[in-house]
Amino acid sequence: MKTEIYQELKFDYINHDNEIIINQELKKFLKNHSEEKYFDNLSYILLEIANNANKANLKRVHFNKMALNIDSDSDYKIGMNNFIQKLNQDTEKYFTLVKKTGFFVKIELVLKNDVFKILVTNNNKILSTEKDRVQQRIKLSTKFKTMDEIFSTGLDTQEGSGFGIILSLLIMKKIGLDKSFFKLNESEDATTFEISFPIDVLNTEKNNILTIALIKEIEYVPQNHRRVILLEEYLNQKEFTIDQIHDVIERDPSLTCDFLRILQSNASLISNKITSMKLLWENLDIKILKKFISAYKLNKIYINDSNLKLIEYIKDHSFEVAYYTQFLAKTWNMTELAEVAYLTGILHDFGKIIILSISKEIIKRIEKITGKKEFYSFLFQDLTDHYKHSIIGERLAAKWNFDHAIIDAIQYHHFPLEATGNKELVYLIYMADCIYYYLRNKLEYTDFESEILEYFKINSQEELDSICDQLKGYIKENYQIEIEA
Ligand SMILES: [Fe+2]
Ligand SMILES: [Fe+2]
């Protein structure tokens, strides 16, 4: 017999603290059923509906407070005129009133016969104008295929709910559900929004709304102010050497990445994909450099100073990983990959740099677009989350038209076995990255994917250690870096 798993949460109102509780409970629920991967998408939808139900209750409190009849068309117009404004001014008071009145928002999470259901109920009857609005939005949502389309139409987000429903439906579509999985049940004294997800129709869509919003907002890689000034100083000197310029850029993944972006996303500048530093230098002329340095200065696209130290650490790490790839490519007879591996080594963690560099303005803008207030904590709650920085890196590298092999290596450098193409480069970057941490005792031999070890014919820890010893010698001799565990 199939069992039913049921969980109920009930709130007087939905504020930020309660949103956190809802998220925690949803995460636990999904985790218990190994469906955690849908958390980001489902959390967005659930909070969206819960907030709509909450708003419906608060709306009624507002009408009572103003002594207006919500069922009268003329009163409805008057009441709605200043509802949002009053609510924002006096949120706590409205919460107290909603509690006093006995209104609530109930959330039910149900898993039965491999169908996962989310029900959100408020104890008020939905008005026909509210219902029309929802239906209109549902209809509108079928016109959109991508988040991009929604973002670029600049829908009015003033009332929040319309935009949220469209996005929710689109997310549902992305995880394999059409609008028939979205139901509205009404009675005299309650309204319930219900979404059901047959577990087996959920596919593995990796997008989540916040990542998409982020990718859309990032147009360039923010830079370290000091390095930009240094570059400019060199360029203004009469007798600068091109090596000086190369050195500043190459030692900095953000600069490397951004110059690659400039070249690669501008088809008139270059016809082929850039797969090595050498090609980057060949295509990057002084005029372009100067033009973009003034753009950095003008637009102040600098990194978030509060994370400077961590960003510098990632830069050093990336540069060192790039070195390792040179030794490893030679050791494993993959010299034809050495050039692209070096460039990829420098770039592989740039998703992390982006996350750490994001300015408050961008965060605010994304929070406005998505209607989600905890974007900042979403990004930073777990920076070591490999999935997040590799996906953000991969999406941006794709948006900026980088070479396919580089995009793959950025995406899969923590999940090498998931790669389907360009495996050699992915595996090489994976090994160089892991060895960096292994040499610092932050990774054990058993943490390496055994299939990848096998691929490189490493059969024991002794064999890995022997490669590492040679690598240390190579790094010391060629780059004067001494690795201390
Ligand atoms: Fe990484
Ligand atoms: Fe890394």
Structural overview:
The protein has a five-stranded antiparallel sheet. The protein has two domains: 4-205, 2-Layer Sandwich (Heat Shock Protein 90); 225-479, Hypothetical protein af1432 (Orthogonal Bundle), CATH 1.10.3210.10. The chain has helices at residues 16-32, 39-65, 73-89, 91-101, 128-141, 147-153, 161-174, 209-217, 225-236, 242-250, 253-264, 277-283, 286-299, 308-331, 338-347, 350-357, 360-370, 375-380, 386-399, 404-412, 423-438, 450-455, 461-479, and strands spanning 4-11, 105-112, 115-122, 182-186, 191-198. The chain contains 23 helices and five strands. The chain is α+β, with helices and mostly antiparallel strands and 485 residues long. Strand 4 and strand 5 form a beta hairpin. The protein is 60% helix and 8% strand. One fe (ii) ion is lined by residues 349, 386, 389, 413-414. One fe (ii) ion (FE2) binds next to helix 19.
Quick summary of this structure?
With 485 residues, this protein is an alpha+beta fold. It has 23 helices and 5 strands. It is elongated, with a radius of gyration of 27 Å.
How is the topology of this model organized?
Elements: E1 4-11, H1 16-32, H2 39-65, H3 73-89, H4 91-101, E2 105-112, E3 115-122, H5 128-141, H6 147-153, H7 161-174, E4 182-186, E5 191-198, H8 209-217, H9 225-236, H10 242-250, H11 253-264, H12 277-283, H13 286-299, H14 308-331, H15 338-347, H16 350-357, H17 360-370, H18 375-380, H19 386-399, H20 404-412, H21 423-438, H22 450-455, H23 461-479
Antiparallel strand pairs: 1-2, 2-3, 3-5, 4-5
Helix pairs in contact: 1-2, 2-3, 2-4, 2-7, 5-7, 8-17, 9-10, 9-13, 14-15, 14-16, 14-21, 14-23, 15-20, 15-21, 16-19, 19-20, 20-21
Bound molecules: fe (ii) ion (2 copies).
